[in-house]
Amino acid sequence: MSTTRQNRSQSIAPLSERPGGTIRRMTDVVETPADDTPPDAAVRERLLADVGALPNLPGVYRYFDAQGGVLYVGKARDLKKRVSSYFQKNHGGTRIGHMIGKIVRLETTVVRSEAEALLLENNLIKTLKPRYNILFRDDKSYPYLKIVSHAFPRVAYYRGAVDKKHRYFGPYPSAWAVKESIHLLQKVFKLRTCEDTVFNNRTRPCLLYQIKRCSAPCVNHISAEDYARDVSHAERFLLGEQQEVMDALQTQMMVHAQALQFEQAAEIRNQLGALSRVLHQQAVEDNTGVTSKDADILAVKVQGGRACVNLAMVRGGRHLGDRPYFPAHVDDATAIGEGEVDLREPEVQVLEAFIAQHYLEGGVPPLLVLSHPVDKALIDALSEQSGVRISAQHQPREPRRAWLDMCIRGAEIKLAQLLAEEGSQQARTRALVEALDLAAENLDTFRIECFDISHTAGESTQASCVVFEAHKMQNAQYRRYNIEGIIGGDDYAAMRQVLTRRYGKIAAALAEPAAATTARLPDLVLVDGGRGQVSMAREVFEELGLDTSLIVGVEKGEGRKVGLEELVFADGREKVYLGKESAALMLVAQIRDEAHRFAITGMRARRASVRTGGSRLEDIAGVGPKKRAKLLQRFGGVRGVASASVEDLASVDGVSHELAEEIYRALH
User: Fold this and answer.
1) Which pLDDT value is given to residue 3?
2) What radius of gyration, in Å, describes the C-alpha atoms of the chain?
3) Residue 144 phi/psi, 5° resolution?
4) pLDDT for residue 622
5) Rounded Cα distance, 439 and 442, in Å
6) Could you give the CA distance from residue 300 to residue 319 in angstroms, rounded to a whole number?
7) Is the pLDDT of residue 151 over 70?
8) Which of 7, 29, 343, 415 has the greatest number of CB atoms lying within 10 Å of its CB?
9) Using an 8 Å Cβ cutoff, are 283 and 293 in contact?
10) pLDDT at 34 exceeding the cut of 50
11) How far is CA 411 from CA 117, 356, 418, in A?
C-alpha cells in the first residue's frame, strides 16, 4: 500500500467481492479548492506530490475536476509509472492537455493483479461514466428462446432475468432471431407455442396442427413419450448437436419401417428433410480442431469521430445475426489513451473497451473472433472471471473468415448510416437556427422542448413534452402531464397548466443566484398550435418573468396539409413559412409529430384505464397482481368482477370471504 502525506487524507473503502477473491481499495484524496477556478500552482504541486507517493503496484486511478466530476478512469500495471507519465511534460492544447488542466484531485485503488485492475477499471467506467473514457451503453436486454417446464413443454420468446425452473437458449442478437428459431422448431419438431390457459381448454386442434406446425398434444394427438422425445431433439438441436439429432431420427425411422409403421416412418422422413435443409455450414472449428458451437464475432470501424462495434452471434453452431453498438467519447478517449502516448490503433482501444464492458458481468462465449488483435491480459481476465477458457482469434480461416468479413462489412455500413443520419440532423439543426435567427453558441447543446395536448372529446386530457438536444430526440427526458381541474376540451387552459408546471420551478431557480447556474431554459419552446396557443404560452412566460422570444407555435397551413405549416412567434414577429423542402421545417415537423405521438399514446392508455377501471382493483387493499389476474381471468374483465356476487368472488382461489366483501364494496 502507498504511504500517506500530511496534506492528504487516506481512507479504506469497503471490500467488494469479485470472482477469485476480494479487492482491497486504497483511495488517496488531494484537498481541492471550493471554487470553480482551474488548478493553480499549489494544487498542481500537491498533485505531483501525491503522484510521487504512489506505489509501484497494479491498480486503477481516477481523475476528478473542481466540481467533483469524474474526468477519466484508467488501469495500470505500475500505478506510479503510469500516472506520473501524464504530468511529466506540457501537453499544450491537445485533448490530453485539456483534460490534465482540469484535474484537481486523483484517487487510486491498489489491486492484486493486472487482471483485477482491468475488471475494476471497466466496472468504474460503467458506474461513473467519465468524460474522457470510451463508454458503451449498458444494454444487456438480449432476448432468449425459452422452453417452459410442463408435461408438454412449450417454446416461447423471453426477455428478462433467467431462472433454473425453465430452460433458456441464447442470448440472441434480436427478437427476429428468436422468432425465426421458434418457427424452425415448429416446422421440424412441431412443438407447441400456446399459453397454458389455451392449452388446458382446447377441445380440438388449432390451425397450427392443420398446417403441420404443431403435433396437437392439447388433444392427445401425440403421446407424452413421443412429445418428450421431440423436445429432447429440439434442445439438442439448439445446443448444436445437429448430427446426433439426425442420427437418432434416422434410427427411429428405420425402427418404424421394420415394424411396417410406414406412416410414422414417413413423418420422421419429412422431419429429416426439413432438418437437412436448415443445416448448412453452421459448425465453428478453431485451429486446434476443437469444435466450439458458441462464438461471438466482433468487428470495429472508427471514422469521423464515431465508432461502431458490430457483434454477430453464433449459438449452437447457428449464425443468428448481428447487432451494432455505438460508443460515446471516442475522439477524446482515443486521443488520451493509456498514459502519455497510446500507440495502439483507435480500433483496438474501442474493441478492448467493448469487450471489457460488455462481458464484465458474464455471458462471454468460449470463442471470440475479432477484427483486430487485443491484449491477451484482457482475455485472461475474462477467462478467470467467467471460469471458462476463452480463446480469441483475429485471423480466422473458413468458415469463420466469411463470418468475420460479413461482420466487418456490417460495421462499415452501419457506421456510414449513422454518420449520414447525424450529418443530416446537424444540418437540420443549423438550418433551423439560421432560419429563426437564434443566438446559439454551440449547436451540440442546442435544446428544443415541444408541447402537445391530447384528449378524446375532453376525456382523459394529457399533455406531452418531448426534448430535442445534441441533434437527436432525448427519449429519457420526455414527460407526460395529466391535466386536471379544467373544462374538458379547453386546450388553452391545458397548455397554461402544463407550461406553468414545467417552467414554474425553473423560473424560481433562475431568480435565486445560488441555483441559477444549474437551472436552464431550453433554447426554443415549440407549441403545437397557432396564435391562440402561442398567446397563452406568452401569458405564462410573462407571469413567470421568462423570455417570450423563446416561444414558437407550429400552425397548420391551408387545408392542414403537411409541409404548409407556418411558424408563429410570441414576441410579435411576423409568422414565417419555411417552404416544403426546408431542412428547418423538416426538423420542426419531426419534433412536432413526436410530441403528438407521445401525447396520444399516453392519453389512450389513460383513457383505457379509466374506462375499464383497471386500476380500481389494484387500489383495493389485499388485491395484488396475482389475485387481480385470477379475478379478471375468472370473470372476463373488471365489469364481470363488478357484476359478481360476494359468494362468486369468494370462490376464486386466494380470495377470502372478507376480501370478497371488500372488493364488492369497492366496485359498487
Assistant:
1) 35
2) 31
3) -125, 160
4) 75
5) 9
6) 19
7) yes
8) 415
9) yes
10) no
11) 30, 19, 11
Distance CA 454, CA 432 (A): 26
Establish how many alpha carbons lie within 13 A of residue 111's alpha carbon, considering only the half-sphere containing its beta carbon: 24
3-state SS, residue 377: helix
Residue with cell 506540457: 90
Reported as type and span, the H/E element at residue 463 is strand 459-469
Element (H, E) at 601: helix 583-612
The predicted structure's pLDDT at residue 21 = 36
Domain boundaries, the chain: 8-128, 295-415, 443-610, 613-666
Give the separation between CA 88 and CA 86, rounded to whole angstroms: 6
Per CATH, domain 295-415 is 3.30.420: yes
* 3-state DSSP assignment of residue 359: coil
* Average pLDDT for the chain: 78
DSSP string, 532-543: HHHHHHHHHHHH
- C-alpha cell of residue 561: 396539409
Start-to-end Cα distance in the chain? 71
Query: What does the alpha-carbon distance between residue 78 and residue 110 come to, in Å, rounded to a whole number?
Result: 10
Cell of 575: 409568422
Which CATH class, in words, describes the domain spanning 613-666?
mainly alpha
- 295-415 and 443-610: same fold? yes
HSE-CB at 151 with a 13 A cutoff on CA atoms is 9
265-280 residue pLDDT tens = 777 676 666 566 555 4
Could you read off the pLDDT of 424-446 as tens digits, one per residue?
Answer: 888 888 888 888 888 777 888 89
- Contact assessment for residue 585 and residue 596, using Cβ atoms and an 8 Å cutoff: no
* CB-based contact 468:444 (threshold 8 Å): no
All three cell numbers of 16, joined, read 467488494
Topology of domain 443-610, CATH: Nucleotidyltransferase; domain 5 (3.30.420)
> Tens digit of pLDDT for each residue in 523-538?
999 998 888 899 999 9
**pLDDT per position as a tens digit, 111-142:** 888 777 888 888 888 888 888 888 887 655 67
For 8-128, the fitting CATH number among 3.30.420.40, 3.40.50.12780, 1.10.443.10, 3.40.1440.10 is: 3.40.1440.10
Three state DSSP letters for 219-264: HCCCCHHHHHHHHHHHHHHHCCCHHHHHHHHHHHHHHHHHCCCHHH
Spatial CA neighbour of 109 closest among 47, 27, 184, 48:
27
HEC states along 137-205?
CCCCCCEEEEEECCCCCEEEEEECCCCCCCEEECCCCCHHHHHHHHHHHHHHHCCECCCHHHHCCCCCC
Q: What is the pLDDT of residues 301-325, one digit of tens each?
A: 998 888 999 998 887 777 777 889 8
